[in-house]
Design brief:
Distance between the termini: 75 Å
CATH superfamily: Immunoglobulins
Strand content: over 45%
Order of helices and strands: HEEEEEHEEH
Radius of gyration: 21 Å
CATH architecture: Sandwich
Strand order of the largest sheet: 1-2-5-4-3-6-7
Number of domains: 1
Structural class: alpha+beta
Shape: elongated
Length: about 160
């Protein structure tokens, strides 16, 4: 009976100690390196968003897939996924292209909001996403900055 009690108390303590021993990592720093138009389908616009991913950790970030959401002027604008696999070396960087889709309604709404602004040449953006790793590991990231309006205004030929 005493052995059962000992095990009953020891297992949670050992589990907590195991979780505490996992190394903590800093999130990757992500910057928008470029945006290129892609051909769209029907009522959508598509862009290839190139992300520069910087790894501030002492271990490589291996990923098998990525997801990104882009907000413009505080509102959802585009989202995209990629099944690309790769690695961001320790204390290194890599560039990853993710195709994103913008619905026609989101695009029209943003154009109307931009048109109501006086001489707006840059748009504030927020970027959220994750690099999916093995098992349950995922490196989540957030970034903020400004986009050039002229880049978004160019549509790709079909």
């Amino acid at each position: 009976m005493n052995t059962r009690r000992l095990l009953l108390h020891a297992v949670p303590v050992l589990a907590l100690a195991a979780c505490a021993s996992f190394p903590t990592t800093d999130p990757p720093r992500v910057l928008v390196a470029g945006i290129e138009p892609l051909p769209g389908e029907g009522l959508e616009l598509r862009f290839l968003v190139k992300l520069r991913i910087q790894n501030p950790n002492d271990a490589a970030i291996d990923f098998r897939g990525a997801f990104v959401e882009l907000d413009l002027l505080g509102r959802p604008f585009a989202s995209g996924v990629s099944d690309a696999a790769g690695s961001v070396p320790r204390f290194g960087e890599a560039v990853l292209g993710i195709p994103v889709t913008v619905s026609a309604l989101n695009a029209l709404s943003q154009v109307l909001r931009i048109a109501s602004q006086e001489s707006l040449s840059k748009l504030d953006y927020e970027l959220r996403g994750k690099l999916s790793g093995t098992l349950f590991a995922a490196a989540r990231f957030e970034a903020r900055g400004q986009l050039d309006v002229a880049v978004l205004g160019r549509a790709a030929p079909r």
